[in-house]
Amino acid sequence: MRGDTSTDDLARQRRFTADAAHELSTPLAGLRVELEEARLHPEETDLHRLIDSAIRDVNRLEAIVTDLLLLARVTGCAAMQCRPIDLADTVRSHVIPRPGDPDIRLRTVPEVMVNAVPAHLGRAVTCLLDNARRHARRLVQVQVSRYDCTAELTVTDDGPGIPVQERERIFERFARLDTARDRHQGGTGLGLTIARDIAHAYSGTLHVEEASGGGARFVFRLPLHRVA
Q1: Would you say which domain of life the source belongs to (predicted)?
Q2: In terms of pLDDT, which residue wins out, 32 or 10?
Q3: Which residue ranges does the chain devote to CATH 3.30.565.10?
């Protein structure tokens, strides 16, 4: 059994390495082509357009590398640096309207305390909100509450939803879905993976289910902070 587990882990690691290399090579290849074209035909190069395009590619590379580093570090840092933090306050501070956003409706209860590294909790909230923003048609609903002995954050969008058979695969690194909810709308392909890894690092869970009326409902739960 242990041998099978080691083989599976090695296969996953190799697959992830190959996927990461592909994701990093795509913007690098585009940047290289544009720079080589500019060198060959400087008189035909629109410098401002070239710089804007290069900055977009560099920003995407930076975002992917930042997310990969966070995935590598989150488990090791969790136990050492966590402290009591209010999940409701964290969510409120991250629900900031942006131009072109769908309608975002927030409901919270006070003092939903959990133990976490503030930066990690904020990153998980950002990942879930960004995912909902990308896929919502008109509305995102965000709610913080207590559920038994856990703190619960739900983020619901009115987008196309996620088929049952894909609801675990969307949490894989660089997962691509053959559905309307694909990665052509932006993101690094690591956001949901990061959010789930953060939940697991603090003995929590993250899953997705169908929202009432369609769309997707992401449910993020962490144990409530216990006062000694």
Answers
A1: Bacteria
A2: 32
A3: 80-223
Closest by alpha carbon to 202, among 78, 119, 90, 83?
Answer: 78
Q: Are 112 and 145 in contact (CB under 8 A)?
A: yes
- Identity (one letter) of the amino acid at 50? L
C-alpha 1: how far from its chain's center? Answer: 32
Cα-based torsion angle of the residue sequence 1, 164, 144, 120 in order, rounded to the nearest 10 degrees: 50
Q: What is the pTM of this model?
A: 0.75
Using N-to-C axis directions, what is the helix angle for 191-201 and 118-135, rounded to 10°? 140
CB contact at 8 A, 170 and 208: yes
Class of domain 80-223: alpha beta
Question: C-alpha angle 188/194/197, rounded to 5°?
Answer: 155
| The CATH number of domain 2-79, selected from 3.40.50.10610, 2.40.420.20, 1.10.287.130, 3.40.50.2000 | 1.10.287.130
pLDDT for 34: 85
User: Can you tell me whether residue 75 is helix, strand or coil?
Assistant: helix
Q: What is the pLDDT of residue 208?
A: 97
